[in-house]
Specification:
360 residues; alpha/beta; 6-stranded parallel sheet; elongated; single chain; 14 helices; 17% strand; 7-stranded parallel sheet
Length: 360
């Protein structure tokens, strides 16, 4: 079976990680040959692709040039399945059209977040690709509903977590390096973009700072708004926030943190099933997240984490302080979160579900 995975780039992101994890999981299957077609060469995850999987970069050029190269690759590889991980209309429309020439099965798999499609061209390209797809895959029910995908051919395949990512490390040494020492740490790992509500993060840190000077808020992530929020925290004299920028040891940072946050900007973005939330739960780090999208599909409020309303600074601060003060509650949330991931979100389960759909 020949499978082509089509994705815009291999840079950091939820869908990119999901695809790479799947590609790695399938690479041990002798009867499956995989190829990746992307617009841009390189990227954060390029080094994680097994040597047996060929990456084809279409590069820059006009739309006509890109279509010519893409057509040539389809002709050369002659795939059984083309799996679309991108919502770029050029790829959706061309893959839909070319399937009549090459006869492959088409899987539309870019659905993830709970954002509604509003522009005309994406609406048209989505509708056509849904109509002619053999299967539609989302990592959340929220994604299927928001994108108005036909339920008869739609499948929810949740993200899979690989617990082997947790390697042994010296927690005390990391705390010393970061000059955290014995302070309780509340962490949020996310891109500094409009999709994430970093304003709420700052407001919560400021509010809790008025009550306790011991609790440290750790902001992990890069993005075009990082400098803006650094300056805003400085201007507001919020001194209990540490901005770490991009890090390659998020799993370790989670394990030295007492609590993890994910605040989303509901005006522009609704989460699917967030990798950030899943990683935190797998690490046994209790999560407080804002309501929206697929978040209730992974967090059961009050059982393995807490969900608060968007911009509810008071509610978020209250829950954070409650968790930090109550060791029994923190321990129970942690145990329930790890159990949830192990029972519902294992990488091996995700890979097997994809294999089943491919074979069908």
């Amino acid at each position: 079976m020949k499978i082509i995975h089509v994705i815009t780039s291999l840079s950091s992101g939820g869908r990119e990680r999901r695809m790479v994890q799947l590609v790695r999981g399938l690479s041990v299957e002798k009867k499956i040959e995989q190829f990746i077609v992307t617009l841009h060469a390189g990227g954060d995850y390029a080094g994680d692709i097994p040597d047996t999987v060929k990456i084809h970069s279409l590069g820059n050029g006009s739309k006509v040039d890109l279509l010519r190269k893409y057509y040539g690759l389809l002709n050369q590889i002659n795939p059984d399945i083309v799996h679309l991980w991108t919502e770029v209309p050029l790829f959706l429309l061309s893959t839909t059209a070319f399937r009549f020439r090459f006869g492959y099965k088409m899987i539309v798999g870019f659905l993830a977040d709970g954002n509604e499609v509003k522009s005309l061209l994406p609406k048209i390209s989505n509708w056509l690709s849904f109509k002619f797809a053999s299967a539609i895959i989302s990592n959340s029910m929220a994604g299927i509903i928001a994108k108005k995908a036909p339920k008869g051919k739609s499948h929810v395949l949740y993200n899979g977590f690989d617990f082997r990512r947790f390697k042994p490390f010296d927690q005390q040494e990391l705390r010393i390096q970061l000059k955290i020492f014995d302070r309780p740490v509340v962490m949020m790992a996310a891109r500094f973009s409009e999709a994430k509500n970093w304003d709420m993060f700052l407001a919560v840190a400021e509010k809790i700072g008025e009550i306790s000077h011991e609790i440290l808020f750790m902001a992990v992530g890069a993005g075009d708004r990082l400098d803006y929020f650094k300056k805003l925290a400085e201007k507001k004299k919020i001194t209990n926030i540490m901005f770490l920028g991009r890090r390659n040891d998020v799993e370790n940072l989670l394990r030295i943190s007492s609590l993890s946050l994910l605040f989303s900007n509901e005006k522009v973005h609704a989460e699917g099933v967030s990798n950030s939330i899943m990683e935190s739960m797998a690490a046994g780090t209790p999560v407080v997240a804002t309501m929206g999208g697929g978040t209730p599909e992974i967090i059961t409020d009050g059982v393995d984490g807490f969900i608060v309303s968007p911009n509810d600074v008071e509610g978020a601060a209250e829950r954070i302080l409650n968790i930090l003060k109550n060791s029994n509650l923190r321990s129970q949330l942690s145990k329930n979160a790890v159990f949830k991931v192990k029972s519902k979100f294992l990488l091996g389960n995700m890979t097997e579900q994809y294999k089943d759909i491919y074979k069908r």
